[in-house]
Amino acid sequence: MVNDSLHSELGRLKEEILKMGRLLEEQVYKSVKSLVEKDVVLAREVIANDDVIDEMEFAIEKKTLGLIALKQPMAKDLRLIATILRMIIDMERMADHAEDIARITIELYEQPYIKRLIDIPRMAEIGKEMISIALDAFIYENMDKAMSLIPMEEQMDALYEQIFRELLSYMMQDPRTIAQATELLLVAGHLERIGDHATNIGEMVIYVVEGRRVDFNELARKKEDNK
C-alpha cells in the first residue's frame, strides 16, 4: 500500500516535471526567436516566465523532499527521487540561460546585426530537441533515448566552435564589431550550456534505470578513439 502511494506520488511529480520542461522548451525557442526578430516584447515575456520556472522548481523540490521524509523510499525509488532533485536544478539553470539570451536581445535591439544569424537558431533548435528527448527519456526511463543525446551534444559543440571562429574573424577584421560579436558569442555559449544540461539529464536516466553513473563525454571520446 505504501509503495502504491509512493508510485502515485512519483507519477504526479513526473507530470509536474514534464510541465516545467515544456515551458522550458518554449523559453529556449522564444529567447532565440526574440533575438533573431528583434522582438523586445517576446524577450520580456521570456524574462517574466523565468520566475514561473523558479516557482515550479521550488514546488517540485518541496514535494520531493516531503516524499523522502514521509515514504522513506528505497533502491530504485530513491534513485528516482535523487534524480528529480538534480534534474530540476539543471532545468532551472537552462531557463536562466534562456533568460540571459532574452536580455541580450534587449541590449542589441537598436543595433544592426554584423551578420545574419544562421547557426545560433540551429543551436536553439537542437537544444530544444535535446530538452524534449531528455524529458521523454526520463519519463519513460528509456536508455536509448538518453544515449541519443550524445551525438546531439557533439553537434552543439561543433556549431559553437564554428560560431566562435566566425565571430573571431569579424572582430579581427573590424574592431568596431567586438562588442556585438562578444554578445553573440555569449548567446552561443548559453545554448551550448543548455545542451550540456540536457545531457546531464540523459546521464541521470542511466542512473535511475541501472544504478550506475556514466559520463556521456567519456563515452563519446572512447567511441572516437575506436574509429
UniProtKB/TrEMBL annotation:
What's the short name of a Pfam family annotated to this entry?
Answer: PhoU
Give the organism the record lists.
Thermosyntropha lipolytica DSM 11003
Protein name as it appears in the record: Phosphate-specific transport system accessory protein PhoU
Function recorded in the entry:
Plays a role in the regulation of phosphate uptake.
Localization recorded for this chain is: Cytoplasm
Q: Which GO terms describe its biological process?
A: intracellular phosphate ion homeostasis; negative regulation of phosphate metabolic process; phosphate ion transport
* Subunit structure, interactors included: Homodimer.
Q: What is the lineage of its organism?
A: Bacteria, Bacillati, Bacillota, Clostridia, Eubacteriales
GO CC annotation terms, alphabetical: cytoplasm
| Hydrolase as UniProt keyword | no
Q: Which residues form the PhoU domain?
A: 17-104, 120-205
What the entry lists under Gene3D superfamilies is as follows:
Phosphate transport system protein phou homolog 2, domain 2
